[in-house]
Amino acid sequence: MDLNAELRLASDIALRAGAVLVEHFDAGTLNTRSKSRRQDVVTDADIAAEKVLVDALAAAYPEDAILAEESGNRDGGSGRRWCIDPLDGTANFAAGIPHWAVALSLLIGDRPVLAVTFDPSRDELFTALYDGPAQLDGWKISIAATSAVQDALVASNLPYAARTDPRIACRMHSSRGLRETGSMALDLAWVATGRLQLAAHEHNGKLWDYAGGELLVTRAGGVVEPLAGFPGLVLAGGRELVTSFHESDEWPPLDQLTRTTRTTGGTTDEQRDDRRVV
Fold first, then answer.
1. pLDDT class for 69, splitting at 50, 70, 90?
2. Do 131 and 193 fall into the same domain?
3. Cys-Cys link to 187, which of 28, 117, 155, 166 (CB 3.0-4.6 A)?
């Protein structure tokens, strides 16, 4: 299955969408508004960049389905589905923080086979195909060789109740450093290139957030595995490091403590679960 033409197109339109975002970012023309939650924001730049991506893909591959964060689902009959996040890290973007990305992936069935993540602020393009290496600007990249949590920089995109659970918190805070960067796409791209060593996130059905990034990690030599005891949560990184996170005898076993619901200021942990930076 040759997907090089799709990769070339996806890379090109990611660059074009990135140029749209940079124009809005530099001009300060953001027009930020909330979506379903107050913390979940969208800007005119999201909409403009997504239009570039959706229009190009629909024209080139009219039978493919498209799942886009802002405009939703477009059905197709080919068995292929493009997942689009035109601006991963909107809260950073709206605050003037230059840490955000354009993220695209192609799935055949439920299997990611192509990934493109473009970081316009650093002019870095991360790409991968299912049968080739992960690359940064055309150069092969690999995960770090780190095997112990204490030596790792760890990125967290976990729900509130999970990241405050003592079984996870003790591991996270034993690391060399914990990062909540506001861009899951860049977290996973940076794991793939070894800048970060481990990322923890949630499989919440929002495929545009993680499908492509997980392909980058696996094609860079890493793994994506369930976080034991926490259904729907996963770790992405080197196999030895993921194993270390689970099995070290320095911390309580992940699957032997009962999660509790605490109340702080009238808000339970479950009510806080979706309070993540996007």
1. confident
2. no
3. 155
